[in-house]
Write a structure and sequence with these properties.
Blueprint lengths: L1 H6 L1 H15 L4 H37 L13 H42 L11 H10 L2 H19 L4 H11 L9
Helix pairs in contact: 2-3, 2-4, 3-4, 3-7, 4-5, 4-6, 6-7
Length: about 180
Amino acid sequence: MARRLAVSQDARSRRAETLREIAGITNLSRAMLAAEKLLGVAKRDAEALAQERDKSEKEHLMLAYGLGVDEKIPPNLRPQFKGLEENQKRRNTRALRDGIDRIFTDAESFFRDVLALQLGANVEMTNPELAEDLQLRQLGTNAAASIAVLDAITESRKRLASNVRDLLVLESLCTLMILRRDLAA
């Protein structure tokens, strides 16, 4: 992931968008909107990776069977192409899950920075560009709330692995990220 962030402007933009959404969760409606937007970010990320590869694989298989790119697939070869489509669908589902996991990783980095500020740890921030948002979150909540969010991210990964709907997992997590000023005491 670090390599991808270093070389890909799209990856850096996706991460910045993710962190902006997470930092902006201040109430329930913002949490629900953020969950939808985060899922959209993960979908766009997965589709960008899959679209070209899927097309290229199909063209390669057609050429391997001596077919032109625009030629109709003969009935005796349809099972091979069906198998390719099924493999691509599985891989694309996995790519979406990987995109959601990247969102979880970004959220962890945000809340680890908040927790470090809350505990007064003298460590370098992972997200120094969000210093103002981190400071606001640090002052508006307490360490227990930040730890609860970090635990919820781990639980969200488990839920995703057990095939709970993507949006439901993100909504559940985002509601726990709401900036609750009453917890700061």
